[in-house]
Amino acid sequence: MGFKSPVYGVVAVPVEKVEPNTYNPNAVAPPELKLLYDSIKEDGYTMPVVCYYDRERDKYILVDGFHRYRIMLDYPDIYKREEGMLPVSIIDKPLDHRMASTIRHNRARGSHDVDLMSNIVKELHELGRSDAWISRHLGMDKDEILRLKQITGLAALFRDVAFGTAWQPAEAELTAAARGDGMADADDSFGEAAAAVEEEESGI
Q: How many domains does the chain fold into?
């Protein structure tokens, strides 16, 4: 049997059994949320949310569609009309691939939340995924990945990078102490670190 897209197997799920994921900040401005409410009120749910089904807990974990899910929870008229049932399209993927799916859904709609992207890059690294894997599955180039790493400000994201001899934090700290302007030297060192990362990761 050939591949069958998840949308052909949409199921009605009690909204109480649906849970947000832990990696997507899910922020939206109130006017856009009200517009989404108006759309669902007038046209109904025309698109399902996307979830992963956790069989052990009998819960559906959101991959995409958090705001459609929130509309049902926040607006009693929608909940009543839909009898508390949310249309769900199910994908069966491990966590790292679900995170990549969330990014692909967001980017395909033209939305690009920098905090979301940087947090997901951080979590994917914590799951052991390389920059090359992130580049391939999230559709990012090496410069974008580097910028997102820098936004998090976490040195752990650079732990696999073999820095060049130009980056010498111990010497920089000594110089800063002698001059009494540690912040300036910290900024200089971070800039040199970023340059070293970019040079080392040129093979992505």
A: 3
